[in-house]
Amino acid sequence: MSNSSFSNIARRAALLSVALVPASLLPVSALALPAQAPHAPNLAALINAYRAAPGSCAGTSAASVPPLAVEAALSQIRIVSGTFLEPALERAGYPVEHAEAVFISGAADAAEAMETLREKYCARLLGTDVTAIGTIRVADGWHVVLARPERRELPAPEGIGEETLAAVNAARAAPRQCGDRQFAAAPPLRLNPALDAAALSHSRYMAQVRYFSHQQKNGSVVGDRALRAGYKWRTIGENIASGQRTAQEAVQGWLDSPGHCANIMNAAFVEMGVGYAVNPVRGTLYWTQVLAR
Question: Where is the signal peptide, in residue numbers (predicted)?
Fold first, then answer.
């Protein structure tokens, strides 16, 4: 997840801080196979049968776990060395929160591959942090891809302003330390439709072009966008974030970062707007909060 804050107290005075948190990656990669590439659904069925009644794992009694969804997209991934699995799955149209792969060499059939998997990788087969599986028969063995697809549920847009405002005003109601700066409690903010429009327009821009920045490629910044939306500001600031799935997550992420926290606690701001948009390919949410007077 990523956040960035921007403040503009005078027209030409600006503060920009960016915190980027890279997604976890695996030291393997994948390339999409042609559509006619063979795959092995029987191995996935054997793995699910084992999850239903494992009996034991590494000499210890093991409880049953839910079956994995057999995903065609995961059965069309060929593991190669040198790149990364998760970005390759994204390029193949299957974005994930987590993915891993197991390679079994020399197994003549699915039953033999399953025997090796039970012996060497039973803990991974019984993992509850994955929910989907794909299996591929290759010339020298078998690939098993385990994944947890990216969550696609979205916050309700009709209540996002009130929800974000409530979280922000709860934070402003008490003194707060933002990095090395101490802030007194600040009066509550109120929503402003023009600031909502400015925030939403920037979130849509970032989601459309997958470009995480306060400044758009045409050079516009938050003050320009607010003016275009009809808000004549004296003091203005902006927080942005990407990856958070709820308003509470977005606000908490901002409060955990000194620059964003300082914007939220700034008593000079009296109104705010907020909006999110979703990248249609990756499904990532982009958030914008505009604070102003």
Answer: 1-32
